[in-house]
Amino acid sequence: MCPITLDGVDVKQKRQEIREYFLNTFELFEKMFEVLKTDDVFFQKSEVTRHPMIFYFGHTATFFVNKLISMNIIQDRINPEYESTFAVGVDEMSWDDVEASNYQWPSVDETRAYRQDVKDLVLHLIETLPLSLPIRWESDMWVILMGIEHERIHLETSSVLHRQMPLELVQEIDDFKIYNSSSAAPTNSLVSIPASKVVLGKKKDDVYYGWDNEYGEEVENIQAFKTSKYLVSNEEYLEFVADDGYEKLEYWSEEGKKFLEESKAKYPVFWIKENGLFKYKTLTSQIDLPKKFPVDVNALEAEAFCRYISSRDGLTYLLPSEGEYEAICNFAGVGEVIDEEEANVNFKHASSTPVDRYSMNGIYDVVGNVWQWSRTLMHPFEGFEVHPAYDDFTVPTFDNKHALILGASWASSGNLIVKKSRYAFRKHFHQHAGFRYVVTEKKEDRLKDIYETDELVSQYCEFQYGDTHFGVKNFAIECARIASEFSINKSKALDLGCATGRASYELAKSFDEVEGIDFSARFVQVGTKLKEEGSIAFTVKEEGELVSHKKVTIQDLGYENIKDKVSFWQGDACNLKPSCNGYDLILATNLIDRLYNPRLFLDTVDERMNKDAILVITSPYTWQESSTKKELWLGGYQDENNQDIKTIDSLQNVLGAKFERIHVQDLEFVIKETARKYQHTIAELSVWKKK
Known about the structure:
This protein is of the alpha+beta class and 691 residues long. It contains 16 helices and 26 strands.
């Protein structure tokens, strides 16, 4: 289904459009899971780095609830356990917990019933949420559209995972029929693309929904180059396989060599070798290798093939850059939204089609059929902003490890078939993705400098890892020191609201194991990067647009020998996973007044703590309705009797039955905003011993 537009004049009609779009998405997603032969298959993994399929079946539904909760659009969860279990774990990030022993999955029928409850909720909200046109990302309805487009993504990625399942675990269904082709592939050739100026990105007032990374602008002058007329077909790629391309390491990058070592790959993942001949794995069947179909490979395989034919032909073949791909689209006359009459998209077929079927100005499959790997790594455009509802969609991919895929596949729909859409995957990932090649004077794109440039994240990096100011000690270090001094047992600690992770590392000096958990993946990835890569770099705002650059290393910080004690996870303090338990210390730093339901956290925190465990809470008590509905504040207001309600008293009232308050003190901290502007704040730190 094509995406709906954000504009219009009739609110009632727009609600109906959104309703139909949601229902089509929700029901098609469930239809995709009918490919799994039995309910037992839902609990199988297609590959070891992923969750069992039941996770993905529940994930898209919980996404609606979790985002609606985080944006204060709804107040009550449908099923807190499910909304924790199905929350995170789709991209092999180190904070994606895929350890099977940490999960107790519900049954398929229970998950279906839960999905129905979510469906009913969303339909109600579509009818009742405030709505004005055009819909902009500040609108509550934008969060609904976000949930719909998120499920469209998982509709496609789930089809990839199903395709990776053993044949005996899947079944054909009438809604997903493959295209039959058995003829030979055409000989590829090069088409000249003239020099041009391209403008990447889109404006905030674009008529179609967009993810945060799509907004902004990047202007690039593209030199004249040549591109392959066709996507690389199975037959064209077969030459590389037959010539032992997977054995000749000179064609493979270091990352590619690691992929070969770990995967033991000798040919593409959807090829099956039987009696010296190749078969081909479709979504639900095995057929003779369709020579005319585009080959499905990961980025590492595509790069290796380009090096192979470069060696063969004496030319330099590369994957196209994002800018070059845009130039190809402009040359081909690609419209804003891909039309399924012009390309193989939107489940027109449940498979690829021949590479010579869809021509656009003499170039075939400019869009559709399979995604096309590029040599451009995911990066933000000028003007990039993070959407507050989904800060972990794009930012974790700004790591020089995620390559852009362009142009959509046969399983793409919704935002995925909008020309300006941008998606990225790690180079070893398999999608319905292939490639075309270019011959260009411009060589490999340089790696983007990876500095934490998000203003809030950079500010916290400076706060936790930067200089001290005005004689005020490092707040994270002091919190960890005080918490450690009061702790009786020191086996396992939780740094809840860990931000960029400094206190987690400090706690590891005293504790055997430390988990740092934060709601924001933007924060979590900083602590993770320090552990995995040994350093973090960030910008510090000095004056206006002027910034300075800083870098800290794990050696300089003295954490090299304790880093393995620390792990970082993305999580919701009000709805932690069941596996988050057995703590001797929970440090909740400047968290309580930022929770959407602080009482819920306090009522249940004891369940996660050992005997004699210590709870440390710090906060400046800056209550605000943007974080917490006023009726849920623990302090900072007068009650019906005109009595002042203070947070420390509420903490005593709520925690007093289960905890003994053993210490209270003020603790200062300073946050640098610019070279001449600082926030000087006094938090109250309270220490509570579990009775």
